[in-house]
């Protein structure tokens, strides 16, 4: 760190304008946890009655804040809730001191905001294994609490960035039975991204009214189709946290509103794609779509094998239409495949079929396609009806440069 | 390809001097399959009575030569055997033409050497998906057959190289009941290396006398402890082939000689380590030793998770003692782990224990250790008696450079 990274060439043109969400107040501050000259802590206060659902990393070495959040999901909602997030230090693998940091921060947030400790959710992201200087965060909580205000979503997105090169946000206002419901979300993440849950930090706020169990079920369902379908480097964070807070301020109950689930899906997919677009060193945004597999699970195994293959990803970086490496990745995945029934396409270009290169394929057309910044690799296994789509990026010198000296 | 790669800094000082093996004759030639100005085909003729055992890639998209070899293992040995290998083109995913190429080559070898087609084993290594110009190989078989001679093991090692930066060989003469037995082996491989069988080409010759089933069982057993314990990039070749030919010329029967198995193990491990030392772009040779796991299988899962993690491998490239990434890799592996019982060592340096950095650890000592070209990462999970050791290399800019334009 220390040096600023150039903004990803795959970044959206600008931050969107997500709606302010009733029942949500946000503040950010520069506490100097690690970074200098930028905000690094965000605080969100949520109105009484807010339902909070969460999905977390499945890592066996998950951090103290993650364990604390997992215990608190599903608790009473009467007295509201708070979310506090710092960047620069992940408070992961910090032993007993990690737990002490979580306790110190949650108690201080409770004192500053009037929310009970059992409803204060924390997250920390950054270097693993160094003690979190939680005093710096605690010292700023009075100031943070006083500056809480509606909106502020872009500020929040900026405060939680680590190696991210752009802040990530998405939002929408939808109409349900003629009444307005808003959803706004932010995400951070660009390395240590692999789908065993969200592998990043994501916070989504909505003024919809929904029972916590229904929200929890919906969030888990949608995570499997969005954040669990992206991979940058096959590495899984110890700190991944996705929280969705539904304040109910709109007065619109959405437990059985499919349009709400659709809108939430779209926002989660948008944020997931933005994480891939900010993949460390990425120059290509790549969709890997597998169909014709024996099962959906097999399709996912093949898609991830392609998306995580260093040889496929370096070929994409080199704009090399090296479809032989896609055959290799399918072959090694362990899921069912028949070499002679495979069909491979680059976008609309038929590349290979019947166990060999397609007669119509030209290397020039393939090479020309590879110069695009957004690519689609489509594989039909010819075995059944299983399908899956995942998203990834290429593997470049930029990834090596960022990660060979992250701590220096 | 095209441009010559610098020899790996981890290469042995020189090619060893493996013993000439009775019953084995070798020849090499420049057939111009793809490369210019170097040998690219090797032919070995094996005396009547030679037992041949083989281990092959488990890829679902394995090549035509691999499928052909697999069918032939275990056949009658009366009339000897032949092995022919080309570099530059893998004849993989080449449809019906791939099978035609294998037939053309094996028939021509049979004609040139007098060995029946059923005892001619072929292998091809190089680019996937391009038709093999087998006529160039067939045209050279008369010349090759005439120049067959004892020894020549280093020439053979050179002829089968692709992106390898040095030829790989190992050998030993051992004494069994006062009688001499020789073993000599060669290997090629530096990318697309992951342990689901050998992920490379390996040929081992011995003048020991051993029944084919006993040799086959021994080879499978030893592969699990050697070639299946190395990984460069987690990618698995479609062409991996390991053949071991026992001519019996020494007259020494080794079916029940543990010293033979030990010697064969050592040669296989030596060759496996050489493959890692020639890992594409490698600057560090890394042993990952996991102990204290619930089972050996869990230990292997953790060891491979560490060895294949891009974030661990880039940290090693940057000489960054980033042990937090090792914690991350253990956490994501899916095998049993308890964050607070982990012990991590770099060589003899105790880095972390009891869920946090060790009190005695200093970042300076860790950083100093990381400047070594040969590293040991040792993890004790504190859960049981399962253990496993794997070998890998770092992930550098060199890997990206080699693989982003392999075909150009």
Question: Layout of helices and strands, plus pairs?
Answer:
The structure is a homodimer of 408-residue chains.
Chain A: E1 24-29, E2 41-46, E3 51-56, H1 64-72, E4 81-89, H2 95-113, E5 120-127, H3 134-138, H4 141-146, H5 153-159, E6 168-176, E7 179-188, E8 201-206, H6 212-225, E9 230-231, E10 241-246, H7 258-277, E11 285-293, H8 296-308, H9 310-317, H10 323-332, E12 343-346, E13 349-353, E14 356-357, H11 363-370, E15 374-380, E16 386-393, H12 397-404
Give a quick set of tags describing it.
homodimer, 408 residues, alpha+beta, Ubiquitin-like (UB roll), 2 domains, seven-stranded mixed β-sheet, 12 helices, 31% helix, 25% strand, globular
Describe what is shown at a glance.
The structure is a homodimer of 408-residue chains. The first copy, chain A, has 408 residues and is an alpha+beta fold.
Can you describe what's shown?
The structure is a homodimer of 408-residue chains. By secondary structure, chain A is of the alpha+beta class. Chain A has 2 domains: 24-277, L-amino peptidase D-ALA esterase/amidase (4-Layer Sandwich); 285-404, Roll (Ubiquitin-like (UB roll)). In chain A, 31% of the residues lie in helices and 25% in strands. Chain A is built from 12 helices and 16 strands. Chain A has helices at residues 64-72, 95-113, 134-138, 141-146, 153-159, 212-225, 258-277, 296-308, 310-317, 323-332, 363-370, 397-404, and strands at 24-29, 41-46, 51-56, 81-89, 120-127, 168-176, 179-188, 201-206, 230-231, 241-246, 285-293, 343-346, 349-353, 356-357, 374-380, 386-393. In chain A, strands 9-16-11-15-12-13-14 form a 7-stranded mixed sheet, with helices on both faces. In chain A, helix 6 (212-225) packs across helix 7 and helix 8 (296-308) crosses helix 10 (323-332). The longest helix of chain A has 20 residues, at 258-277. Chain A is globular and about 70 Å long. The termini of chain A are close together. Mean pLDDT of chain A is 89; it is low at 194-199.
């Amino acid at each position: 760190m220390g040096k600023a990274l150039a903004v990803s060439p795959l970044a959206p043109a600008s931050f969107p304008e997500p709606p302010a969400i009733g029942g949500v107040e946000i503040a950010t501050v520069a506490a100097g946890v690690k970074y200098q000259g930028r905000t690094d802590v965000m605080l969100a206060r949520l109105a009484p009655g807010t339902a909070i659902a969460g999905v977390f990393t499945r890592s066996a070495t998950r951090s103290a804040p993650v364990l604390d959040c997992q215990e608190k999901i599903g608790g009473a909602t009467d007295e509201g809730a708070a979310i506090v997030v710092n960047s620069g230090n992940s408070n992961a693998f910090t032993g007993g001191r990690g737990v002490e940091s979580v306790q110190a921060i949650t108690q201080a947030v409770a004192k500053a905001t009037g929310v009970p400790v059992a409803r204060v959710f924390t997250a920390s992201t950054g270097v693993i294994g160094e003690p979190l200087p939680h005093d710096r965060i605690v010292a700023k909580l009075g100031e943070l609490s006083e500056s809480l205000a509606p909106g502020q979503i872009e500020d929040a997105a900026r405060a939680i960035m680590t190696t991210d090169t752009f802040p990530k946000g998405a939002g929408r206002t939808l109409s349900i039975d003629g009444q307005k419901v808003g959803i706004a979300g932010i995400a951070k993440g660009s390395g240590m991204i692999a789908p065993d849950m969200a592998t990043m930090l994501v916070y989504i706020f909505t003024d919809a009214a929904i029972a916590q169990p229904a929200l929890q079920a919906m969030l888990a369902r949608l995570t499997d189709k969005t954040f669990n379908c992206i991979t940058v480097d096959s590495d899984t964070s110890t700190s991944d946290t996705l929280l969705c807070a539904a304040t109910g301020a709109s007065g619109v109950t959405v437990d059985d509103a499919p349009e709400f689930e659709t809108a939430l899906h779209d926002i989660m997919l948008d944020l997931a794609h933005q994480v891939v677009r900010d993949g460390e060193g990425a120059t290509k945004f790549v969709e890997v779509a597998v169909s014709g597999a024996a099962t959906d699970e097999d399709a996912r195994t093949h898609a991830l094998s392609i998306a995580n293959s260093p040889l496929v990803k370096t070929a994409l970086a080199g704009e090399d239409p090296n479809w032989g490496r896609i055959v290799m990745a399918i072959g090694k995945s362990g899921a069912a495949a028949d070499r002679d029934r495979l069909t491979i396409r680059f976008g609309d270009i038929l590349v290979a079929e019947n166990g060999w290169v397609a007669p119509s394929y030209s290397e020039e057309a393939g090479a020309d396609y590879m110069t695009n910044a957004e690519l689609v690799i489509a594989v039909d296994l010819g075995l059944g009806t299983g399908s899956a789509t995942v998203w990834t990026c290429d593997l470049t010198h930029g990834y090596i440069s960022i990660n060979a000296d992250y701590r220096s």
